[in-house]
Every structure is written in structure tokens, then in C-alpha cells.
């Protein structure tokens, strides 16, 4: 099938390459000529495992191309729209400028019978707002939210847990749903749940899923706060409640909390939209989820300050991690970098290391010092802070090895990813999050 993908950021670039890898003929369109040039050469403009391979394969096969020219969308049966919906500069609501601009630019190239499939995460009601403009061309607007996780984006796109398509009522919607079923034929063929809903439900599914995940993380972080004043261990608590299948252990990792380009902004935009709809109280708890999340960053900084005798001023602190999570070079709203910046603000001599995210970090926070080498960061540090649970720090770094690099012997485990006993036995002072 011929497909266009409008917006080649994180979501769109992966979607375009993944759709080509399952046999479709795909053109990716973006206004950013630099990004388009990189993608057209098969180079991923960001770190995402497996993306480089499927980009190169797609381009070599002749089925995948990238351009800045929207006219290239003409003739495609389905047009995916995957542009960004960032948080507004002066508030919590989502900025829909790019979504509206993309649809307006696409409209002149639509033909009757085409399907426009919105993938961006949007406030509920956006699809209804856009529908008249698309419908005027004889095309059908549907909403097909994307649930991919960074670091697993290729796998999540090709083999998702579920597919959700919101469609308009009647035959037009049923036909559009059938077309989307064909697009995703390999996943549908192997029994992946394919849920057809109305437009508003599809928009809400995405924000509800992210709100639930954020709630799960802040719930366990709230338990960490209680554990901290009672001597309990939140990781044992998470294991114990996680055995209840109704609760489940995943996303019960207490630590410095969630960040990234989705969860923080999506729960804020959801609150803002609920308030516009007169239902602010229904999701008022999301403000608390956000507040708990931000407090964990304070806690990590406090632990460093306390363990260094009440001040970090002039003291060398190694910060292991900058990305908002492992397997990503994304530093958007990264709790790891926030901790580093706060320590620097308190006068610490901070040195940050990360396997993938240093270039991005340096651009945004040039005031911090960086090294690509973990051991150089640890060398002579008075305290070591693990803030992103890369294998390089979680598995490969032993207390014996770290002891050869510094006499500091203080480690703060912001992700509860280290073996506390092993570090203590080796003579280190270990502090976890919500652990005695
Ligand atoms: C998230 C959703 O998982 C995905 O479905 C959606 O499409 C986009 O938003 P992503 O932002 O890639 O994906 O990251 P995710 O793996 O969900 O992690 C989000 C943040 O939560 C990270 O900062 C991570 O470190 C943190 N986290 C995750 C925890 O603090 N504890 C956990 O137990 C799990």
C-alpha cells in the first residue's frame, strides 16, 4: 500500500521505516531539511536501537523515501500525521500548532477516499475540530494513537500490544477501519487486538494509558516517601504487591521518577483539557502525581547533600546518566539531568557521563562538565550518583572496580538498580530511594 507519514520526528521516522519494513511504499515528509537529508541517507537523527537498520533496508529496497515536499503525499492511500504536540510555553496545555499546520498543508494533496490517520497525542476533541477540513476533500480522518516506548520503538511499532483506531460513525468509518487493518496486516494476522472506537475514545485511550503509567510510578514513589520515614524497603514492598496479578510489578520502579517527552507533558495537558471541559476535579489527582514525581528529584539531591556532610559546595560529584531512561539519547524533561543541574546550582563540581546523551545534554546545559567515559567521571569523585540505569552502571560497574578509581566511597542509587549489599560489603556508603 502507498503511505505518507507527515512529521519525521521520533514517532514519524520510526513509523515510516517500520511501515516500509512490513512491505509498504512509504514517503516521510518533514519541514526540517536537515532531518530529511539524514533520513534519506538512512541515518537516524536520534539514538534508537534497530532504526538505522530498517531505514537503510527501506531506502535500499526503494520502498522508503523522505522529502520536504508535501506534494509527495499525493496518491498515498493513508496519510499518517505524527507531528509533535509539546507543552505550551506559558501553561500546561498541549500546543497544537504543528498538528493544525500539518493537516492544512496536507489538505491540498488529498483525494476522495484517502484516509488521514492522526497519530500525535492530542487533547480529546482535536480530531472533531480537524474533521471538517479533511472531510471537505472527500478523505476520512481517523485517530490511531501510538504507544511506542523509546528504546523499543521499532519493536513496539511492528509488533504492538494493541492497535487502536478511532473512526467516524457509519460506513465511511467502517471502510477506514478496514484500510487501517490492511496497513497493519502482519500484526493483525497474528492476533494483535485491533480495537475500533469513536474518535474521542481513541484520543482518550492514549492519554489515559500514559496517566495510568505515571500514576503507577508516582504511587510507588509515594510509598518510597513513607518507607523513608519508617525504615521500610520500597523495592521489597513493590515485589510483594507486584505478585498480585491485578497490580503487576512493571512500572513499580521507585527512584527519581518519570521524565521524557511524553508522560510529564501528557498528564499536564490532560489536566488542562479536563479543566477546559469542566471536569478538572476528575483528574485533579494528576497534579499530585506530578508533584510526587518532582519531589523525588529533590530527595536525590538531599541525599547527596546529607551524605557529603551538609554541603556539596566545591565537592566533586559524578553523575552517571543524563538520558531520561536507558537505551535513549533523549534528555527531554530528564530527571537525571535535573538532579545534575540542581547539584551544580548548589556549588558542586559536577561531572556528567552517559553512553548516548552527552551531545544533547551539552547543547541544553553547557554549564555542566561532561565525559563520555564512566571511569573518568568516577575518578576522584567524593560521591557517585546513578540517575539513569544503563547496564554500564547497573551491571558492569562493580564496587571493587569503583574503589580503584576514588576514595569517595559514597554512592546514591537514584534508580534502585544496584546491589546495596555488594556496595556496602565493599566499604561504600550506599543510599537508595525509599530503602533503609
Ligand atoms: C511512555 C509510554 O510508556 C509509551 O507507551 C508512550 O507511547 C510514550 O510514553 P517513554 O516515554 O518512552 O514511553 O518511556 P517509559 O518507558 O514509559 O518511561 C517513562 C519514564 O518513567 C522514564 O523516565 C523512566 O525512567 C520512568 N520509570 C519507568 C520509572 O521511574 N519507574 C518505572 O517503574 C518505570
UniProtKB/TrEMBL annotation:
Q: What class of enzyme is it?
A: oxidoreductase
List UniProt keywords, sorted A-Z.
Answer: NAD, Oxidoreductase
Tell me which SMART domains the record gives: UDPG_MGDP_dh_C
Tell me where in this chain the UDP-glucose/GDP-mannose dehydrogenase C-terminal domain is found.
318-420
**InterPro entries recorded for this chain?**
6-PGluconate_DH-like_C_sf, NAD(P)-bd_dom_sf, UDP-Glc/GDP-Man, UDP-Glc/GDP-Man_DH_C, UDP-Glc/GDP-Man_DH_C_sf, UDP-Glc/GDP-Man_DH_dimer, UDP-Glc/GDP-Man_DH_N, UDPglc_DH_bac
- Superkingdom of origin organism: Bacteria
Question: Where is substrate annotated to bind?
Answer: 147-150, 206, 251-255, 259, 325
Q: One GO biological process from the UniProt record?
A: polysaccharide biosynthetic process
GO molecular function annotation:
NAD binding; UDP-glucose 6-dehydrogenase activity
Query: Known Pfam families for this protein?
Result: UDPG_MGDP_dh, UDPG_MGDP_dh_C, UDPG_MGDP_dh_N
The EC number on file is 1.1.1.22
Q: Which SUPFAM superfamilies match?
A: 6-phosphogluconate dehydrogenase C-terminal domain-like, NAD(P)-binding Rossmann-fold domains, UDP-glucose/GDP-mannose dehydrogenase C-terminal domain
Catalytic machinery residues: 262
What family classification does the UniProt entry report for this protein? Belongs to the UDP-glucose/GDP-mannose dehydrogenase family.
- Tell me the protein's name: UDP-glucose 6-dehydrogenase
Amino acid at each position: 500500500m502507498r503511505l505518507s507519514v507527515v512529521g519525521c520526528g521520533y514517532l514519524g521516522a520510526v513509523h515510516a521505516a517500520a511501515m516500509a519494513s512490513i512491505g509498504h511504499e512509504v514517503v516521510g515528509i518533514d519541514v526540517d531539511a536537515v532531518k530529511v537529508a539524514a533520513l534519506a541517507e538512512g541515518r537516524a537523527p536520534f539514538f534508537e536501537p534497530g532504526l538505522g537498520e530498517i531505514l537503510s533496508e527501506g531506502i535500499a529496497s526503494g520502498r522508503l523515501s523522505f522529502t520536504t515536499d508535501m506534494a509527495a503525499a499525493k496518491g498515498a492511500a493513508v496519510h499518517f500525521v505524527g507531528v509533535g504536540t509539546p507543552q505550551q510555553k506559558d501553561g500546561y496545555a498541549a500546543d497544537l500548532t504543528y498538528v493544525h499546520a500539518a493537516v492544512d498543508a496536507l489538505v491540498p494533496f488529498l483525494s476522495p477516499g484517502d484516509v488521514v490517520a492522526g497519530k500525535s497525542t492530542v487533547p480529546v476533541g482535536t480530531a472533531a475540530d480537524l474533521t471538517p477540513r479533511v472531510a471537505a476533500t472527500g478523505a476520512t480522518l481517523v485517530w490511531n494513537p501510538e504507544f511506542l516506548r523509546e528504546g523499543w520503538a521499532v519493536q513496539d511499532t511492528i509488533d504492538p500490544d494493541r492497535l487502536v483506531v478511532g473512526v467516524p460513525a457509519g460506513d465511511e468509518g467502517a471502510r477506514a477501519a478496514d484500510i487501517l487493518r490492511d496497513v497493519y496486516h502482519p500484526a493483525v494476522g497474528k492476533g494483535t487486538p485491533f480495537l475500533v472506537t469513536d474518535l474521542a475514545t481513541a484520543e482518550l485511550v492514549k492519554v489515559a494509558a500514559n496517566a495510568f503509567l505515571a500514576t503507577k510510578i508516582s504511587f510507588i514513589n509515594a510509598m518510597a516517601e513513607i518507607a523513608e520515614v519508617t525504615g521500610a524497603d520500597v523495592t521489597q514492598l513493590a515485589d510483594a504487591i507486584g505478585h498480585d496479578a491485578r497490580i503487576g510489578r512493571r512500572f513499580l520502579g521507585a527512584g527519581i521518577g518519570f521524565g521524557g517527552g511524553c508522560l510529564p507533558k501528557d498528564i499536564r495537558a490532560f489536566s488542562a483539557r479536563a479543566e477546559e471541559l469542566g471536569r478538572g476535579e476528575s483528574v485533579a489527582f494528576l497534579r499530585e502525581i506530578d508533584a510526587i514525581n518532582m519531589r523525588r528529584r529533590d530527595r536525590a539531591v538531599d541525599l547527596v547533600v546529607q551524605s557529603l556532610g551538609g554541603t556539596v559546595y566545591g565537592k566533586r560529584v559524578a553523575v552517571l546518566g543524563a538520558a531520561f531512561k536507558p537505551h535513549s539519547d533523549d534528555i527531554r524533561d530528564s530527571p537525571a539531568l535535573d538532579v545534575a543541574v540542581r547539584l551544580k546550582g548548589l556549588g558542586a563540581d559536577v561531572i556528567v557521563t552517559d553512553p548516548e546523551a552527552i551531545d544533547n545534554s551539552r547543547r541544553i546545559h553547557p554549564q555542566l562538565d561532561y565525559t563520555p567515559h564512566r571511569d573518568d567521571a568516577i575518578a576522584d569523585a567524593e560521591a557517585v550518583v546513578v540517575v539513569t540505569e544503563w547496564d554500564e552502571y547497573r551491571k558492569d560497574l562493580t564496587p571493587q572496580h569503583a574503589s580503584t578509581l576514588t576514595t569517595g566511597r559514597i554512592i546514591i542509587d537514584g534508580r534502585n538498580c544496584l546491589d546495596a549489599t555488594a556496595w556496602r560489603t565493599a566499604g561504600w556508603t550506599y543510599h537508595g530511594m525509599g530503602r533503609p
